[in-house]
Amino acid sequence: MKYVCDVCGWIYDEEDGYPEGGIEPGTKWDDLPDDFVCPLCGVGKDSFSAE
Q: What is the per-residue pLDDT across 1-51, written as a single tens digit (0 to 9) for each?
């Protein structure tokens, strides 16, 4: 599953994770920390939409 930032369009792909931010490949969206923010624009998880 992929999640797209509604503000800037950055995509979080569960399959890829976000290794640069310490999030391992295969990490589900629901398993991300509650304080996860978009690495490009800084908005929270509530500003992402499932793709």
A: 999 999 999 999 999 999 999 999 999 999 999 999 999 999 999 999 999
Q: How many Cβ atoms are within 10 Å of 5's Cβ, its own excluded?
A: 20
- What six digits make up the tokens of 11? 């995509």
Backbone angles phi, psi at 22, to 5 degrees: 85, 15
Looking at the DSSP bridge assignments, the partners of residue 18 are 23
Helix (H, G, I), strand (E, B), or coil: what is residue 51?
coil
| Helix or strand holding residue 39 (H, E) | none
Measured distance CA(12)–CA(20) in Å, rounded: 12
